[in-house]
Amino acid sequence: MKAVKPLRRAEVEALDPGVRRLVVLLRSWNFETCDSGDGRSKPGAGVADDRGIVEVQPMPHVVIEVPALDLLDRFGELLGLLEQAAGVQCDCGGEPDAPMLQGAIGYDRSERKVTGFLEVCNVSDADLPAPLLAWLDQEIAALA
Prior knowledge:
By secondary structure, the chain is of the alpha+beta class. The chain has four helices and four strands; from the N terminus they run H-H-E-E-H-E-E-H.
């Protein structure tokens, strides 16, 4: 598996503040993040981002791209890391605002490519334990 390239400090600072450290954490675990939001920092629906995407999710989320054939293995790995290292208990059948991990497979017709996606929902930096946040702050401070 190819290592995920660390973000530069400017890239981290451009992320929504409520999920910045979560994105850095997921990338440190070798998960390739491709979209994120904290559910409150982006402009309202109807404003397109630089890729032309208009939809704004109303909850914290981070989307991860994985090879489609690795989806189930990476799902299990991420679920374990979230629970054991970050203390986040995911539950797809729980309360509407409960932390959730979900997976999907998508097809890009133009590239003729099937890709897997994992999405961590309803988890923000505020849900991470203080010692982990302190370590992430040190990692971010050390970025170029």
